[in-house]
Design a protein that fits this description.
The protein is α+β, with helices and mostly antiparallel strands. 29% of the residues lie in helices and 12% in strands.
């Protein structure tokens, strides 16, 4: 749970194919199952599964995924909105258990039960999450939830 639940707020620049071709920030490497789950069916035809792919979390960048040959996949190519790139209150922060920005804010401010982070932790411990296929970033959301709750 330690690595999958950590999130980095700042992105370190790097050289080579790890950089987003649009914003030039270092992306986070992904498993191909994430792209297969997130991309719209009409876009899957262009997916090269033999290349490494990365996730771009930069808010103002329209690229979500890119590969080592700099092919990009944009927010419009995904089946879901991306938490890091969409300010809407109905966008999930936790895709596995339905914790939207709006719901997290409500539960935190009104001290309702279960509290978002504790609920997610319990489900992760019980091996109920499916972050690789549900979350566009391809990893655990707990770091994102923690950052969001601190901003409330």
């Amino acid at each position: 749970m330690t690595d999958c639940c950590a999130t980095k707020e700042t992105v370190i620049e790097s050289s080579g194919s790890e950089l987003c071709p649009s914003c030039n920030k270092k992306g986070k490497k992904l498993k191909i199952i994430t792209l297969k789950s997130m991309l719209k069916p009409s876009i899957l035809d262009s997916l090269n599964i033999n290349l490494n792919h990365s996730f771009c979390s930069t808010k103002d960048c329209d690229v979500v995924y890119f590969d080592t040959k700099e092919k990009s996949y944009f927010t419009s190519d995904l089946k879901v909105s991306v938490h890091q790139k969409d300010d809407s209150s109905t966008v999930p922060v936790c895709y596995c258990f339905g914790w939207t920005k709006e719901k997290i804010r409500e539960y935190e401010e009104q001290k309702l039960s279960p509290q978002p982070l504790e609920h997610i932790k319990e489900n992760v411990k019980a091996n109920r999450c499916g972050c690789e296929v549900n979350n566009p970033q391809g990893s655990c959301c707990m770091g994102n939830v923690l950052l969001f709750t601190k901003s409330i």
